[in-house]
Write a structure and sequence with these properties.
- By secondary structure, this protein is α/β, with parallel strands linked by helices.
- The protein contains 30 helices and 31 strands.
- Strands 4-3-5-2-6-7-1-8 form an 8-stranded mixed beta sheet, with helices on both faces. A 6-stranded parallel beta sheet has the order 9-16-13-10-12-11, with helices on both faces. The protein has a 5-stranded mixed barrel with strand order 17-18-19-21-20.
- Helix 13 packs across helix 15 and helix 17 packs across helix 21.
- It is elongated and about 120 Å long.
- Bound molecules: adenosine-5'-diphosphate and magnesium ion.
- The site of adenosine-5'-diphosphate (ADP) has 17 residues, from helix 2 and helix 3.
- This is ATP-dependent helicase HrpB.
- Keywords: ATP-binding, Helicase, Hydrolase, Nucleotide-binding.
- One of its GO terms (molecular function) is hydrolase activity.
- Pfam families: DEAD, HA2_C, Helicase_C, HrpB_C, WHD_HA2.
Length: about 850
């Protein structure tokens, strides 16, 4: 079959041979992934051609397809290597790998010996491992490996200034043949989209209904359905297969963990009409010929890391407009097509244009350690396409430091180097090393493999509970037992299912375990496989603590699942966990998940005894003896606490609180307005206003002023010796205030901010003060007859205002110009009021 990319054959070969760097943009389905590696081979590239894929399933399917195209056996000239699967040989010239595998190879030998070309496919997905690997390959090409050829392929160039980043570089673009796709919006209820009733309840119903609507169409072709995850795919497939209207249609799920046979069936180029229900692997990674209808739920599961709270989040999110367009494009490959979007056009307009690259949203600890191990000390100055957020980098640095991988100078330690050798998050690499120390390497390996996989248990089937034992110290013990049962049953899905075990998960786990065992043994760790009952839980809890001390948690009470976690965080312990009711525990999983509500769940927990915690981290313990305010009793009580870092592990209340702390706590509540002092009255406010204003009017007098802190201090002074609100409620304030100033300062205050002034007609008037306002007197105008000039205070610097009151004491006018008032204001006032108040004197 002639593909658009074939037209570029010569140019591609030339570009790569001449400049060594090529950026190739062509739409999905134009033949990039299947043809470019062969073209490189034929143009004379020597050594191994490594093609980097973001996904395992794509690497595997492409390798098999290309091997078939070239008429060779898989694993011969064309092979693939993904996690748990090494399908290449001496003869291999083209190898499809995942970005994780390339990262490992770079780690093992940064020079990539034997590799002639690296092709980064689907680069627009911007996976963190691809970003980093590309940067390192560019460096490599500019230093010791000038002969290395680099090709970056992407469905779009609009990613992070890629073209400039790669300079000097040849750029080739191809436009594939695309047919028009008719896009229809058909919103389903927000509830189904957002999962208000649990994980996407009802989404599959809506999707099945949409499929039913399309199967009747004459030119539907194959129907490709996009869903966020395996769970949703399974539910939808079940519904559709059961329905009568789907007769004559083959229903094919498509996702990474599926068996190779079913994967092949889903993407097979020929065959009867199919409904393919897929994750976003079919968005750009895989092309399925003959699709004329796309049904898009518009959602994807997105992993993020929140550096502020230090937790992973796994949320179903709305895909970007760019992704939606890629998905729609799948319908127009062979003929005009149709795309049904299960959201509204309005919603579409509000979606983000592109997804955020991984470097901006995931935990950086693993990448950071890999870079440090590769000798890149200043990671901030690394050749990033887009640099990670400085704060996120800081958080990752801290974690590595805590795990002993970096020293105080942020340089990698021996232990850090050892940790970097494991294809694991540094946390779990540390766990394996701690396993060596506590003689439970295999147990640690099991835990590491388990947390990095989907796990052994089917969701919500009670497996965890069924396999756990009252005396267990860790939830992993149950998982271990279940894993052994699954192994005995040879991973038979039906039999495993009866026990709440996910056969597929267990099988994956076994592969991961084997791989870890190999690496652990190679690294000289003493891997001693535990048998059924011998999972050494006592040793495990010590090892786990070394890896997870930043996840130490304690329940808020026996009656609640709510917990406090070190670092001022909160979460909910798994209701089935054996760590429930422990003094403290660590959670291997701390993930924010969207279910009925958004919560942080603490799963896969291990009980920790306070003694062992204290023994391992003596300097992180502190005792606090102090006072706390009891809101309901409105009094201060004494509390003694034991803390691990900032987490309170034990506390006791009772006895006399230290009085200075009591005064401080009470004062805080008064300042915040929660408690009111009855004697904090107008006179007090006046006194403060006089002081504040005068210190501004006459700074030369060097009065102390009255700041927020002073405010708190005075109130604290008032609260001295008190323990409850009752004690302070009616305490005097003015006497405390007057002690605020020395004798001479008081004299200055009384002289220049007097409480009373004499007017020129002999009458006296009270002066009113307000912070940051001009002072004033308030008088009935009859008392002001004969006064034309208002008195001045602050050594003549500040003129008083007068609030003129009508005979009924109501304010009539505010003025600083009495003379003007007598001339212009008074006649009018007299006209208005004299008739009404004839008994008063009017001149
Ligand atoms: P691109 O990488 O540009 O998106 P591909 O090289 O993946 O394009 O696909 C080009 C063509 O190769 C597709 O249209 C499809 O017909 C065929 N193809 C790719 N992978 C497979 C496969 N696993 N099985 C059958 N055909 C395939
Ligand atoms: Mg491709």
């Amino acid at each position: 079959m002639e593909l658009p990319i074939h037209a570029l054959r010569d140019e591609i070969g030339e570009a790569v041979q001449q400049s060594g760097r090529l950026l190739l943009r062509a739409p999905t389905g134009s033949g990039k992934s299947t043809c470019v590696p062969s073209m490189l081979l034929e143009s004379g590239v020597e050594g191994l051609i490594v093609v980097v894929q973001p996904r395992r399933i794509a690497a595997r399917l492409l390798a098999r397809h290309v091997a078939a195209l070239r008429g060779v056996k898989p694993g011969g000239e064309v092979g693939h290597v993904v996690r748990f699967e090494n399908c290449m040989s001496e003869q291999t010239r083209i190898v499809y790998v995942t970005d994780g595998v390339l990262q490992r190879w770079l780690q093992e030998d940064a020079d990539l010996p034997g590799v002639g070309a690296v092709v980064f496919d689907e680069f627009h997905e911007r996976r963190i491992a691809s970003d980093v690997a590309l940067a390192r390959c560019l460096d490599l090409q500019e230093s010791s490996r000038e002969d290395l050829k680099l090709v970056v392929m992407s469905a779009t160039l609009e990613t992070g200034g890629l073209r400039e980043y790669l300079q000097p570089c040849e750029v080739l673009e191809a436009d594939g043949r695309v047919f028009p796709v008719d896009i229809k919006y058909q919103a389903i209820s927000q509830g189904a989209q957002r999962g208000a009733q649990g994980p996407r309840a009802g989404l599959w119903d809506h999707v099945a209904a949409a499929i039913k609507q399309e199967v009747g169409r004459e030119d539907a072709g194959h129907i490709l359905v996009f869903l966020p995850g395996v769970h949703e795919i399974r539910r939808t497939v079940e519904l559709v297969e059961r329905a009568a209207w789907s007769r004559g249609w083959k229903v094919c799920p498509l996702y990474s963990g599926l068996s190779p046979k079913l994967q092949d069936e889903a993407v097979a180029p020929h065959g009867s009409p199919r409904i393919i229900v897929s994750t976003n692997v079919a968005e750009t990674s895989l092309t399925i010929d003959g699709v004329c209808t796309v049904i898009d739920a518009g959602l994807a599961r997105v992993a993020r890391y929140d550096p502020v709270r230090g937790i992973d989040t796994l949320m179903i999110e709305k895909i970007s407009r760019a992704s939606a367009d890629q998905r729609a494009g799948r319908a127009g490959r062979t003929a005009p097509g149709k795309c049904l979007r299960l959201w509204s056009e309005n919603d579409h307009g509000r979606r983000v244009a592109f997804e955020l690259p991984e470097i901006k949203r995931v935990d950086l600890a693993e990448v950071l350690l890999a870079l440090k191990a590769a000798g890149i000390d200043d990671v901030a100055k690394f050749r990033w396409l887009e640099a990670p957020d400085a704060h996120a980098l800081e958080v990752a640095t801290q974690l590595l430091h805590q795990l002993g991988a970096l020293d105080v100078l942020e340089e990698i330690t021996e232990q850090g180097r050892a940790m970097a050798r494991f294809p694991l998050h540094p946390r779990y690499a540390r766990l394996l090393l701690a396993g060596q120390q506590h003689n439970c390497v295999a147990e640690a390996g099991f835990i590491a493999a388990a947390v990095q996989s989907e796990g052994v248990f089917l969701r919500g089937k009670g497996g965890q509970k069924a396999f756990s034992d009252d005396s267990d110290l860790t939830d992993f013990a149950a998982e271990w037992r279940a894993f052994n049962v699954a192994r005995d049953m040879r991973y038979d899905p039906r039999r495993c299912g009866d026990y709440g075990i996910m056969a597929r998960g267990a099988r994956e786990l076994e592969k991961a375990l084997k791989q870890l065992e190999q690496i652990a043994r190679r690294s000289g760790l003493n891997w001693r496989p535990p048998r059924d009952a011998e999972f050494d839980q006592e040793a495990v809890r010590h090892a786990v603590l070394a890896a997870l001390s930043d996840r130490l948690a304690a329940q808020l009470g026996e009656a609640t699942l709510s917990c406090r976690v070190v670092g001022n965080r909160k979460g909910k312990i798994d209701a089935e966990s054996v760590a429930k009711g422990a003094d403290a525990f660590v959670a291997a999983e701390m993930t924010e998940v969207e279910g009925r509500e958004v919560s942080v769940y603490l799963n896969r927990c291990t009980r920790i005894s306070l003694e062992s915690l204290q023994a391992q981290f003596p300097e992180d313990f502190s005792d606090h003896d102090g006072a706390v305010y009891d809101e309901s009793a409105r009094r201060v009580v004494r509390r003694r606490e034991t803390r691990f870092r900032d987490l309170v592990l034990a506390s006791k209340e009772g006895g006399e609180p230290p009085l200075d702390q009591a005064a401080h706590l009470l004062a805080q509540r008064v300042v915040s307005g929660e408690l009111k002092l009855n004697k904090w009255d107008r006179a007090v406010e006046q006194w403060i206003a006089r002081l504040v204003n005068l210190s501004q009017w006459m700074p030369e007098m060097e009065l102390p002023g009255f700041s927020e802190d002073d405010h708190q201090m005075v109130i604290e002074e008032v609260c001295q010796g008190a323990k409850s609100y009752k004690d302070i409620k009616n305490r005097d304030v003015l006497p405390v205030l007057s002690k605020w100033l020395s004798g001479p300062q008081k004299a200055v205050l009384d002289a220049y901010a007097p409480t009373e002034v004499k007017l020129s007609n002999g009458k006296s008037a009270k002066v009113k003060y307000k912070r940051d306002a001009e002072p004033w007197i308030a008088m009935k105008m009859q008392h002001l007859y004969d006064v034309t000039e208002l008195p001045k205070i602050a050594d003549g610097k500040v003129k008083l205002l007068v609030h003129l009151l009508a005979p009924n004491q109501r304010p009539w006018q505010v003025t600083g110009d009495l003379e003007g008032f007598w001339e212009r204001g008074y006649p009018q006032m007299k006209k208005d009021l004299a008739g009404r108040y004839p008994k008063h004197e009017w001149r």
